[in-house]
Amino acid sequence: MIGCFGSVTFETNDRRICTFNGLKQSASAGYSEHKRYTKKSQREFEGPQNQSVTFEMKFVAGHGVSPRAMMNKMINICESGTVCTFVIGGCRVGGGKWTVDSVDADYREVWNHGELISVAVNVTATEYN
Q: In Å, what is the CA distance from 13 to each residue of 23, 95, 107, 111, 117?
């Protein structure tokens, strides 16, 4: 097992491939600017901001997953406001708890009767504290 995002398990084996690509993690801090007479302004550290991540998952029917079911699972996590754990290689990413801000699905291959064979799902998530 590579890791997990909530109930979605990232793994590769001889029966199933469910992974992510292009993981980008962003961290930032908040500052206030205090103006001072005849001097440069002074910055005051307010604290860290919630981290954010973006990544892409590709679901292919021939890799032992149902592309439509996995896509709908990610959409449901987003629309329900579910707080998820995010773990890679046994280590928590950020604070470990995340909410999904958006899910963008790119239907890559659809067969004759509307059967979804391949979909790329782009996920944007924010740390939940």
A: 21, 28, 24, 26, 19
First and final C-alpha spacing in the chain: 26
Question: Which pair of tokens denotes residue 99?
Answer: 């909410």
Q: What is the pTM of this model?
A: 0.86
CB 85 within 8 A of CB 97: yes
Joined tokens for residue 44: 């005051």
Partnered with residue 119 across adjacent β-strands are: 59, 107
CB atoms within 10 A of CB 28: 10
For the stretch 60-119, pLDDT in tens is 999 999 999 999 999 999 999 999 999 999 999 998 899 999 999 999 999 999 999 999
Distance between CA 104 and CA 15 in Å, rounded? Answer: 26
